Amino acid sequence: MEQETRGKVKKLKGRVEQAAGIVTGDQALESKGARLRTEGAAQESLGKARRKVGEVIAEVGKSIKKGG
């Protein structure tokens, strides 16, 4: 969950920087913001996937305990 949160924060920061770059005409800032948004989205997705895998493993563990 921590990785998901960091990804969301990075995505938001990127969105703000990208918008600031657009408003000010600063292409470097706009590009940096777009890159941060992409990185944040990837990080958030990875965090979600890791959380889902952890949930599945926990469920399998519960099933094994019940059966054993």
Kindly describe this structure.
This protein has helices at 2-24, 27-67. Helix 1 (2-24) packs antiparallel against helix 2. The chain has 2 helices and no strands. With 68 residues, it is mostly helical. The protein is rod-shaped. The model has no long low-confidence stretch (mean pLDDT 94).
Write the layout of secondary structure elements.
Blueprint: H1 2-24, H2 27-67
In a nutshell, what does this entry contain?
The chain is 94% helix and 0% strand. It has 68 residues and is mostly helical.
Please estimate the helix content: over 70%
What structural class should be given to the helix and strand makeup?
A: mainly alpha
Order of H and E elements: HH
- Helix tally equals 2
Proportion of residues in β-strands = under 5%
Determine the N-to-C terminus distance. Answer: 30 Å
Quantity of strands, as a count = 0
Offer a few descriptive terms.
68 residues; mainly alpha; 94% helix; 0% strand
